[in-house]
Specification:
The chain is an alpha/beta fold. 29% of the residues lie in helices and 20% in strands. It contains twelve helices and 22 strands. Strands 1, 15, 16, 17, 18, 19, 20, 21 and 22 form a nine-stranded mixed sheet that branches. Strands 2-3-4-5-6-10-11-14 form an eight-stranded parallel beta barrel, surrounded by seven helices. The chain has a two-stranded antiparallel sheet with strand order 7-8. Strand 15 and strand 16 form a beta hairpin. The structure holds pyridoxal-5'-phosphate.
Length: 476
Amino acid sequence: MSTIQFPPLTPITSPWMKDLMENKKVVRELFEQYGSPINVLNTKPFRDNYKAYRSVFETHNVQHQVFFARKANKCRAFVKAANHHGFGVDTASFEELEQCLQMGCDPDKLVLTAAVKNEQLVRLALNNGVLIVLDNKDECALVNRVADDLGIKPTVAIRVSGFNFNGQKLYSRFGFDIEKVEKLVTHQVGPNHTYPNLRFGGFHFHLDGYSIQQRTAALFQTLRLAQKLKQKGIDTSFIDIGGGLLTNYLSSGDEWQTFWNELNKALQGEREPLTFGNNALGFTMHQGEVKGEPNVYPYYNETPKGQFLDRILSSKNEQGVTAASSINEMEIELRIEPGRSLLDQTGLTLAKVAHRKKDQRGNWLVGLEMNRSQLFSSSDDFLIDPTFMPMQSSGQPRVPTAVYFTGAYCLEGDIILKRKIMLPRLPEIGDAIAFPNTAGYMMHFYETRSHLHPFTTNLVIDSNLNGEFILNQFEE
Ligand SMILES: *Cc1c(COP(=O)(O)O)cnc(C)c1O
């Protein structure tokens, strides 16, 4: 048996997570009180992540604002923390915006990027002076009409897409095509134009994926647009480059590489599967060869968070001018809307073992008191090793055992992790499994109540109260 039989993917875990994962007494009490699963959250790393972005902006002397993309986690604790530490929140629905306003967020530090905006939402934003990012002409007309009703002239942002990258246009269903935006700003927005109540403030874009090069290209193209407008006497106050700044979840690039090598072998039938049903995680097989790209987040990467931002700001255009100096020269404020990366290290999910069984193929299946929607993202798998927390002394021999974790939905596909995970022994009923770093998207974005199971309990560690847990409610 070689050591890479089921290659590990060791997560980066912060000290507060390690403390909790070593504290069986606390975890047992939490299960007794709240059932399983439980999301535990801590806002301290959230603040540190914000400060890291701030210091990169400061190094480049760039005027900036950071907006936390709320959709990545529903807990109010993050809105409260953003408020407390002086940064903003990006909202995407009536409820998200209303809750932020009720919690006392400064409207200047809120932005509304909702993909669909009805009149009620537009009214809420305009009544409170919240910046609206416009996506299409119907929205321009709606905001113009509501502004007329209210007798105001709101500043708006225009969402831009269709950037050129390597000779091709980057497709997006969002925003206005960059080639049409100059005319929109000069001939349609503003006094005596189609939308006379609107005042142009700046641009916004958010790109799919995680490419630094694409973001850099989009930023330079937006800066060029701003330059053209300046020549016509129209100032661009800000450019918001959205989110998608990377998070690094894993501690070893070698482990990451080994995993993909072994998966490749398994898909070609050269070794036993290391994913449930030999799941290809997005690859396809063509005449015995593995083709395509995996459909998973780049859980291991070497340019997370501040380094990602620094690479954008330091990048140069054809004239050799950096993005940071162009931005500064034009007195533009640069804005970002990170979701996932601000939530790095802020949450983990605990689940309780309900049963163990061997399936027809001889795999150990460990049933957890949770369902897959409670740890789910758009990736084909969450490629991070969970931590096994034995809660009692075991009659099981300490024989390393590889298992799949299964969930409570009546679906063959309710497999919590597609990867087979090597544990030091088979778990006992009542043992705990801790999934680290789940606060970004994994907890809430896809959570459903298909069998009327309650939503996961969310608990926030209040560091001032010495490890006391505060129940965080977002559902009502
Ligand atoms: C989803 C989204 C974000 C956040 O993206 P992350 O990848 O979580 O950083 C920011 N802005 C907009 C408009 C979005 O749709």
